[in-house]
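Extended Data, panel c. Modelled sequence:
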Amino acid sequence: MSEKAIEKKAPLFDRIFKPEHIVLDNGHTVDRPRSRTPLITLILLVVVIISLQVTDFDFGILIKRGHELGVIMSQIFQPDFSYFPKVVKPLLDTIQMSLLGTVLGCLIALPLAIFASSNICHNKVIVSILRFILAITRSVPTLIIANIFALMYGMGTYAGFLAITIFTIGVVAKMLYESIETIDMKPFEAMTSFGATTLEAFWAACMPQILPTYLSHSLYCFEMNVRASSILGYVGAGGLGLLISERVGWRDYRGLGMVLLSLFVVVVFIDFFSDWLREKLS
């Protein structure tokens, strides 16, 4: 192969910044590629500068108004415990719609993940369509989905429950079909060769392999949904979000501290419970 042909196959960076020729002690010459670090650093620096200009970032204002954060945080860290009775019902609504949305979303995600797996479903059209739909459900923020459902079905936890369900379907199905594509397919192929349907063979040969992963994904999604559902009230989808918006609007930061403290305790409990359950499943 000629030197020109080799040069054309070289990366664009190496064609612009020619490699350094180094003569070894034995007289042979080798080419050492130029470091890409200065170029990458320069590009990142330009991107940061442009971003600062577009967002009107002012470090002086950040320093000047920084003490306001301390004032707010000092009140948040002194929660008003007398406000707790008003937190109980929205907190239970948040947990209930997160739990119900997670359970329903995970149940729907399982068959979708099966038919979105290229090693189970060999119809490329079906696989592509399902993956495209799942990509859309993941790309749209839960807050926007909840806002749409709130306009369709009215204010309340029903809209939040539907939004969490849609989000759960997209996330769990995505993680699950990726896990399905890594399993041992020999038992599945053996069962289908004996006349079992795709679903029968999957349930008997593949489900035992992915069950711990499926449950782990479901628990992880439940943790995310509890956090996400706490702000759905901003668009009228019920739960703690409405209470948080109300306390911020009234500048009642001690009441807000009580809301956040209640949410923190619930999230920590769920995290510990999920870790314990994952250990049992593994």
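The radius of gyration is 27 Å. This feature is highlighted in the accompanying rendering.
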